[in-house]
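Hi everyone,

Forwarding the result from last night's run.
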Amino acid sequence: MNIPPPTPAGSQKLAWVDAHNHLQDPRLAPHLPGVLARARATGVEILHVAATAEADWPAVRALADANPGLVICSFGLHPWFIQNRSSRWLENLRGVVSSRPAGIGEIGLDGRMGDGLDADRTAVFRAQLELSYELVLPASLHCRDAWEPMLKLLADLPPHPAGILIHAYSGPADALGWLAQKNVQVSFGGTLTRPKNARARENATRVAAGRFLLESDAPDLPPTLPEDMPPHLAGPDGKPLSEPAYVPYVGQLLAQLRGAAPADVAAQTTATARRLFAKLLV
């Protein structure tokens, strides 16, 4: 499937939202002014930055403070980094999300770690998810090779009062219907552009309108670009980095897969993001 090149900035007034990224990542730090400028130039009007560990909470807070109206944020412990948490991590999380407009994330499960800490990882995840229910804050979830326990956990819970986002959704398509009933949204990013990613493309066509978002997951999971479209940035290893400016590109493919106009996908995903992140957009 050929993806049309990104629409030139200014030719269409489309508003997009990057529902999940990590702009606090050190790989992006030297390039951040350009990253933000390209996001604005391509019509990406809201950037949701998700923290991963207590150590990066100050950087995420600083990004939101320095870019009001553009950057919104969530705080949490990513399942990859639970070993580095402090003894007061949950109290600290409650404090930071109670002190400013913020969601809870990135949190979740990962079945690929192989470190013997899966029970601990599940407990940390549940504690954060329960806090999001208690404080009525949106939660941003990670799930990799842990779909059975993740879906069982969500099935046993009531609909989330603020909403849940499962980023880079790679779960089964037949779960999308009941996940929507639990007030769960899913998002699609650069992996959707990989021609062999049949599951993501099926999910993109089957998810209900109003229940999907777009993301960059910057700086990771960049899209597969045409040969004549060089990436904006590369990491120290020479591999391309993702950034919010690619969201409209992914959105055009999503529109093509769903048989919709890019303007409709932009409008739907922006409206869904504004609903999910309403408490952060104040």
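The CA atoms of residues 24 and 56 lie 7 Å apart.

Cheers,
N.
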